[in-house]
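Repro:
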Amino acid sequence: MRTSRFADALASHRQAGTRLLDLTISNPTAANLIYPHGEIANVLGCLRQFDYQPDPAGSFKARQAIAGMYGANGIAVAAEHILLTASTSEAYAHLFKLLCDPGDEILVPLPSYPLFEFLAALEGVRTVPYWLRYDGNWHVDLASVESAINGRTRAIVVVNPNNPTGSFLKREEAAALVELARRKNLPVISDEVFTNFALSAAHDRVQSFADRSETLVFSLNGLSKSCGMPQMKLGWIVISGPDEAARQSRERLEFILDTYLSPSTPVQSALPSLLAIGQGVRQQIQERTRRNYEALKHILAGAPANALHTEAGWSAIVQIPRTRSEEEWILTLLDQQNVVTQRGYFFDMPNEAYLVLSLLTDPEVFDEGVKRIIGSL
């Protein structure tokens, strides 16, 4: 398998034992949090019922717990409208099976995390981009959404909040996008894994699409981000929209889910307790990301670099001088400063030069890494 120059250089540094300041960490179990390993072990250790009683939709008790979590945030969701998967990635795969035939197309936002193309390709589906535009804030370019729709389009994916831009859809643009989907008879797939990680409050953001009724919507989330528990491998789909369309989609999805039966019994049984434990992990991540974003803006003040506005999530985009290509920048930072960064091109930023930094990074490492970046500008 071919590797990039950066991947080869990073592997060499790690093999040599170089102390690196990694500003790309995305694994909360390795982010130097006060992680509740013992609490999770106790919950799993207290389970006494391991009978296999498969339900294509997943354990009803687990789905009730998820519905309760939405209800605590003011979003009315019935447990009957929730389906469990092993992850949001698996949820995408099942939805592509449900909605598409080979050669069909799904609209996806750019910039965004480069996962959709791979997941779609595994199902024989094409991804077609629409654009987010930046003018000091990020906005969905609705004209680019509509112009991308054709006879083979089967769904519109939204990532709310987006990764890595951290932008929420606002009420007006969400309403316009849902109305467009309704007119074109297209479902919306709403990826909401970072919705709990707002960096500040705002009144006009759409927290979730799970209570929309205008068109068919599949809202995705899971333990990986919402509770900082990627190792637990449990995600879910919330179906909303017109009653008949939602009912038919649920029946067909249950057939697909019945074929795989992938979520494990222990995790489903432990889910109510895991959600409770996850509140503490989530709070730590919220505090960490907010602190690091404020520190980033403070450290960059007066420097020839600019942190793009972000509202939520675990990432920050930093615009740097276009005196080198992004690949040259990340290699320079690695070789000269021992700082690991991610280039904007990875997320399909429309031009150069940008670095994408993880706000999940340990604060001491984050501050020193950002200062070293400035020292190289």
